[in-house]
Request: fold
Amino acid sequence: MEKVKKVADWITKWFTLIVIVWAVFNYFVPQTSKWAKHDTSWLLGIVLFGMGLTLSLEDFARILKQPLMVIVGTVAHYVIMPLIAVALCAIFHLDGPLAVGVILVGCCPSGTSSNVMSFLARGDVALDVSIGLLSTLLAPFMIPLLMQLLASKYVAIPWQSLFLTAVKVVLIPVALGVICHTIFKDKIAKVTDVLPIISQTAILLIIGIVVAANHAGLFSTATALAIPVVILHNLCGYGLGFGFSRLMYKIYPRGFGYAQQKAITFEVGMQDSGLGATLALTSFAAAPITAIPSTFFSVWHNISGSVLSSWWRRHDEKKGLVAADDSEANEVASAPKTADISTKDAKKD
Reply:
């Protein structure tokens, strides 16, 4: 099992590079993943089932212990990212399926890669996990609602399909994972080292499917604007997420300290792009171009998140902020269970 853990750690360390290489390979050899085009919902279900296996009832109880920060962080995510998406579509004059794809990824819950980035930046990982969990549980309700409000002017929104697909690939797998964890706790613990490999493989397959389905027009004139839009979407999410958390610090300094500000920054700026791609390929199957923004986002936010977390850590060490602020986050960062959750959940996006 030690060898498995080393392989999982290696994949996690180089996951962004692996994603890029895999995407390029599928671009030139689309037959590699095209066969699994109709299996994306099952693949994402595997990822979220694995997430559920790492959760316990204590993780849900944590939301009740600090409801204000978790709710505020979740609301910030579901307000800031969708509105940024709408603004960017207007600024870049995006229309049709591509605009829908940008808004769709903006309406998704936070990606659990943010747990890893927050951990590396010495943020409040417990808050990060709680916000990610709540935003994920709300996804089947928030995504159809937000898409109907913000994207219906571009195309007819199949809100029923969005809801049912989200329930099938989000709520049910997570619930089953939590139930299995609760019933078979000791046995589950023995196989948790394998979960990152399984989940990251599933995410790679989803990315390969999206690239293969759109290889002919992935870098066409029609989709070229998706790249700067996705980059700005993510970076603006970080900026506004941090600015919002700083504002909340002035209102409630006890709850929104420096470590919490880092967590909210990553939770707002990083999206569950795997879910976005899956919903695009299932609910908007007639226009696979809708999944392109989620694919670009999946690659880019892992790059930007890694850079930001590394910079933040170096900045804090240089300024001598680590010791002062770690009192808020060190208990979480040093706890094996939480650290394992944050590392293993990198595979979702």
